[in-house]
Each structure stands twice: as C-alpha cells, then as structure tokens.
Amino acid sequence: MSKVVLITNTSNDSNNNTTAADEDVAIAGFNQTLPTIYRCRAPIASLDCMEEFQSTAEQLCLQLTSGGLQGYTTPTSVSRQTSVVTPGLRYRNLGKSGLRVSSVGLGTWVTFGGNVSEEQAESVVVAAYDAGVNLFDISEAHSGTRAEIELGNILQKKNWKRHTYVVATKIYWNAKSEERGLSRKHIISSVQASLARLKLSYIDIVIVHKCDPMCPTEEIVRAMTHVISQGWVMYWGTSRWSPVEIMEAYTNCRQFNCITPIIEQTEYHIFCREKAELYLPELYNKIGIRISPCTACAILCVEGKK
C-alpha cells in the first residue's frame, strides 16, 4: 500500500507546499515519508521544482521599488528599465556561479544568418535587450564569424553598459578539419579571435561545442582555466556533451585544481527529452551545472525541413 502527495500551485494552499511533503505517516506499522510529486510530475522530470524560490521580473521590480530586497541582488537588466521588462521573465544563476542571466536568451542561428540584414538584426537585438533579455548566444557553427562581427558592431554602436548584458560564444570542434580540435592552441587562438571580432575586453561565457575524443580532457580543462585566469573569459561551459564526458571534465577540474564548467547546452524538445529530464538534473544536483536547452531541431522536424 502506498500513497503520494500532490503539490499544486493553488492560491489557498500555496504556503503549505513544502510542509505537506514533510509529514510522516504510519503505514502497516512503519513510519514512511510520503513521496512528493510536483505539479503531477515526477521530481526528476520537473525542472520547475528546482526553481520554486525564483521570482519573476515583475516581482523583482515590485520588491525593488518597495525596498523589500534585503541581501538580494537584482540584475542590472531588471532595474535598468523596469517599465519595459517583460512580465514573467525570470533571472537565474548559472550553476553555482554568481552570474545571473535571463531565463530566455537570444540566439543567432537565424538572427545573423540567411537573408537577415544588419538593420533587421540590430532591431531584434535592441528589442530583446529592451525587453529584459541580457543573454546573447552566438556560435561559429551556425553563422560563422558573421554573428560575432555583427553583434560586436551593435554592442559598440549602442554603447550599453558592459555589466548589463552577457555574451556567450562557442568553440566548435569539427571532425572534418584537422586544425579544428580542442587542443590548448586552438582554444586560446579561438578565444583571442572572438575577442577581436566582438570588440570586447572579455567574453562572459565560452562554450565548448562537442567534445573532442582525440584530445585529453585534462588539456581542455587546463586550457579553459588558462583563458579565464588571463581575464579573457569569465566562465566556461559545454554543449552536447554526454553526462559521462561532463562528469569526467568535472573530475579533472577537481583533481588538477581547475575551474569547473557552469552550463551544458543540450537539445530539449518534444522529440528529445530523456537527457534533459533524466540525466542532466542529477548532474545539476550533484555538481551544480546549469541546463541551457535549445529547440531548433524540433522546429525543423515539425516544419518538415531536412
């Protein structure tokens, strides 16, 4: 015989969500703790259950104006223009770091690619920034160096305060090119080239896109620690790494006193749910790595494009 406790977000019992799961009951002479299912979903598949303490942008703005933020740092993007921040937009810390970004970021797969003009791309970036989005994700795998060049021009033209936005770029490993591995040489040269194209003094996040099976993980984590120590990069993460590869990188970081990754960018959509819902949440709880989902592949499948 078993029982479960369902936790819902009703207005009447919202304050009792945490207490219901802590009640012990005697079943067949044994004291057992009732398992908790968040919003009628299993805890491991409910990513929202990890974020119950988070506030929306609208709530943060109200707390800021009323002086209710005690010991809590509000992102600059929230206090920048409280009248235009999109209601419901959340800001979360990336992993165990203090870097706080919007829950919705602007990618560059379409923004800086295809037939989109520079004026249209600038309009999209400005609209996202004004709406409270402070994370801009670019990748040489999608639009080559064009994304970094155009985004750098926009940021230089608008002259926004550097601490109000976060730029994430990728180091792409391509098996078809001999020179595009994840060696220390390639990582350092890629970071320096990205800095020149973006016209920035530093990059907030460098994401290593795909793991290089021909390069030792120790060399990768040492190279990322080097570029961070030089002040060229603030944080680093991974993209499309398996949980085993992420755990190996984390273990090497601990063993050699290197800086650990804070983010894993992975596919998460209706056709690909297992990794993000079953395996990565466990890594998040164990080592504090943050999940950054992407859904572009699902869009292509739904539209029937190949």
TrEMBL record:
Name the UniProt key words of this record, in alphabetical order.
Cytoplasm, Ion transport, NADP, Oxidoreductase, Potassium, Potassium transport, Transport
Q: Where is this gene product found?
A: Cytoplasm
> What sequence ranges are listed for the domain NADP-dependent oxidoreductase?
104-293
- Molecular-function annotations in GO: oxidoreductase activity; potassium channel regulator activity; transmembrane transporter binding; voltage-gated potassium channel activity
Naming one, the record's GO cellular component terms include: cytoplasm
Task: Give the main localization category.
Answer: cytoplasm
Domain of life of the organism encoding this protein: Eukaryota
Task: Mention one GO biological process in which this protein takes part, according to its record.
Answer: regulation of potassium ion transmembrane transport
Q: Which InterPro entries match?
A: K_chnl_volt-dep_bsu_KCNAB, K_chnl_volt-dep_bsu_KCNAB-rel, NAD(P)_OxRdtase_dom_sf, NADP_OxRdtase_dom
Is-annotated flag, keyword Coiled coil?
no
Gene3D superfamilies registered for this protein in UniProt? NADP-dependent oxidoreductase domain
Concerning PANTHER family, the annotation shows: HYPERKINETIC, ISOFORM M
The family this protein is said to belong to: Belongs to the shaker potassium channel beta subunit family.
The protein depicted here goes by the name: NADP-dependent oxidoreductase domain-containing protein
The record lists the organism as Bemisia tabaci
Q: What is the lineage of its organism?
A: Eukaryota, Metazoa, Ecdysozoa, Arthropoda, Hexapoda
